[in-house]
Write a structure and sequence with these properties.
The chain is α+β, with helices and mostly antiparallel strands and 170 residues long. The protein contains 2 helices and 8 strands; from the N terminus they run αβββββαβββ.
């Protein structure tokens, strides 16, 4: 059972990479269709998640801006930001739904992808370290066919047929 534990790292890494790539693609699609206008942060809404020392605050700016067709919109940004009340900012908004908006300086990060690749690498490294085959030794007795031994993870050896094409003279 323990030898499969590293697969949790692999699975976690794959999920994090997938979610991050999906978010990055969604951000890029939004940015391609969005219009850019000047705006101002009229309020900041803070939400809390977690408990005790794990309590985390997320700050979402409330943006006020005028669309290119002259409508004044006030909406909570779809992304978190450190912008404070009164800060001027460029706003990206969806022309089909102007309430879907975010500060233009919101960057789509690659941090999730990097974290996923790291978790994936750690999982694969541990999985290969804990897999059953760790060492192969060869030997021949009396001119007969060579016999190989496979060292198991617990340190014991098990006789096995040598793989075809194994060069035993070196």
């Amino acid at each position: 059972m323990f030898e499969y534990f590293p697969l949790l790292f692999v699975a976690f890494g794959i999920v994090v990479i997938g979610v991050s790539v999906k978010g990055l693609i969604g951000f890029q699609r939004f940015a391609q269709r969005a219009l850019r206008v000047p705006g101002v942060v009229s309020d900041v809404r803070t939400t809390f998640a977690g408990r005790g020392e794990g309590l985390k605050a997320t700050h979402r700016p409330v943006l006020t801006f005028t669309t290119v067709d002259g409508r004044e919109i006030t909406t909570e940004a779809s992304t978190a930001s450190d912008l404070g009340v009164g800060n001027a900012t460029e706003v990206l908004y969806d022309p089909q739904d102007p309430t879907s908006a975010m500060p233009a300086d919101t960057a789509a990060g690659y941090g999730g992808i990097v974290a996923g690749v790291i978790a994936l690498g750690i999982g694969l490294a541990f999985f290969s370290a804990f897999s059953g085959v760790t060492d192969v030794t060869t030997g021949s007795s009396g001119g007969g066919p060579a016999q190989c031994e496979i060292r198991q993870a617990d340190g014991s050896f098990q006789p096995a047929a040598c793989p075809p094409g194994l060069d035993l003279d070196n």
